[in-house]
Design a protein that fits this description.
The chain contains 22 helices and no strands. The chain is mainly alpha-helical. Helix 15 packs parallel to helix 17.
């Protein structure tokens, strides 16, 4: 047998063993004292100091599950749920029967929007303590969040954005730190045209996480829908820099660039007097993104102006009406439509549009346009003797005399002596009108 060297096999004396045990007990007592100090601060709601002392307790005794559990509870009060989750998970790794550890882990998962994981945690609590009423309620809450999430996703596909906002608001009551729910809500608010509300949600997230690609995308989406396309593209590019696979940001960026290019090309064609090409380009731009209400309202108005130039007043009226449906605060299509109404002798409609514009912007120019339309309406209600005789307003005296003789013979009472009394009266009335004309 090989000789055993003293250096290789050092014998620990009984005194040294007692000394080591005493040292461990001292450390445990120190850790417990830190924990008690932490409890005291926690009771006073001084969570930052409680956190500091629980951390000292963990440093002194890193294998004590309750210390991690206490620090998790403190972090939850500070709304630092991700850190709290890590502590709760460490607590149950050290002690799988630690009920409060599982419960806190579930609460953290739920607050962060991971309702499925929360359900598993609360089920574990119920396995350990079947009559735990708090865990029973938390399990119901997590299940409700799962249901709101399911309904919200289905309604998003159906484009029922108001219902999605409702579902996300309900889910956020239980999951206040869930960025995913907030982003979906913000995106739907943007799609509903509630841009300030959507911007507010996205900005709150970016204050906590400046690199959040989803929040950057929503900021860009709001600018895009407000027709600030250049700024929108900057946010989409930034989102793609943070998350190169962000499909929504990629699609929105592509649409924004395409929309800007088509609109500018249409404007150039219009200025050059190429109205057929301008019409084609504006139509192609309108097909890019039906959700972009403000830009599409401008495109419809532009195409309406093109139709007016092409002597298609009824098409111009239809395009301007579509623009107004999209954005009833946009005044240009009212003015364009009013002119087309005048051109087609729909004077009452023209007066209504000019009045709408004047009530919104009481300028001298708008006042004069309204007065002119009211005058045309008044004139239109007078007897149009040219129309009665069936001649143009620029007809010569001879043409008028010929038309008179023709119409007088057509409606003379003698020609209708065998007709009914009503027909005779109508023809007599027309004959008198022809005489006056």
């Amino acid at each position: 047998a090989l000789p055993i060297l003293a250096a290789e096999c050092e014998v620990i004396s009984d005194d040294e063993e007692v000394e080591m045990i005493d040292g461990e007990e001292e450390t445990e007592r120190e850790a417990e004292a830190y924990k008690e100090r932490g409890n005291s601060y926690y009771a006073k709601k001084d969570y930052n100091e409680a956190y500091n002392y629980y951390t000292k307790a963990i440093d002194a005794s890193p294998k004590n599950a309750s210390y991690y559990g206490n620090r998790a509870a403190t972090l939850m009060m500070l709304c630092r749920f991700r850190e709290a989750l890590e502590d709760a998970q460490q607590a149950v790794r050290l002690d799988d029967s630690f009920v409060r550890g599982h419960q806190r882990e579930g609460k953290c998962h739920l607050s962060l929007g991971n309702a499925m994981a929360a359900c598993r945690c609360f089920q574990k609590v119920l396995d350990l303590e079947p009559k735990n009423t708090q865990a029973q309620q938390e399990y119901k809450n997590a299940s409700a969040v799962l249901e709101y999430e399911r309904i919200g996703e289905a309604d998003f596909e159906k484009r029922d954005f108001r219902k999605v906002v409702f579902c996300m608001d309900r889910a956020l009551e239980y999951a206040p730190a869930c960025h995913r729910f907030k982003i979906l809500k913000a995106e739907c608010l943007a799609l509903l045209g509630r841009y300030p509300d959507a911007q507010s949600v996205a900005s709150d997230i970016l204050r906590l996480d400046a690199t959040n690609a989803d929040a950057l995308y929503v900021r860009g989406l709001c600018l895009y829908y407000e027709d600030c396309i250049d700024k929108a593209v900057q946010f989409f590019v930034q989102a793609l820099r943070m998350a190169p696979d962000h499909e929504k940001a990629r699609l929105a960026c592509r649409n924004a660039k395409a929309l800007k290019a088509k609109k500018e090309d249409g404007n150039t064609a219009f200025k050059e007097g190429n109205y057929e090409l301008a019409y084609k380009l504006y139509s192609e731009a309108l097909a890019i993104d039906p959700n972009n209400i403000k830009t599409n309202a401008k495109l419809y108005c532009n195409r309406g102006t093109v139709n007016a130039k092409l002597n298609k007043p009824y098409d111009a009226i239809e395009d301007c009406s579509n623009a107004i449906k999209l954005d009833d605060t946009y005044l240009k299509p009212y003015l364009r439509r009013a002119q087309s109404y005048t051109d087609t002798e729909q004077h009452e409609e023209a007066v209504r549009d000019y009045d709408k514009v004047y009530q919104s912007e009481k300028t001298k120019e708008h006042k004069q346009l309204l007065k002119n339309a009211q005058l045309e309406l008044k004139k239109s209600k007078r007897k149009d003797y040219y129309r009665i005789l069936g001649v143009d307003k620029n007809a010569s005296e001879d043409d008028i005399k010929k038309a008179y003789r023709k119409r007088a013979l057509m409606h003379h009472p003698d020609r209708h002596s065998g007709a009914t009394t009503d027909v005779q009266k109508e023809e007599e009335k027309k004959c008198k009108e022809i005489g006056r004309a």
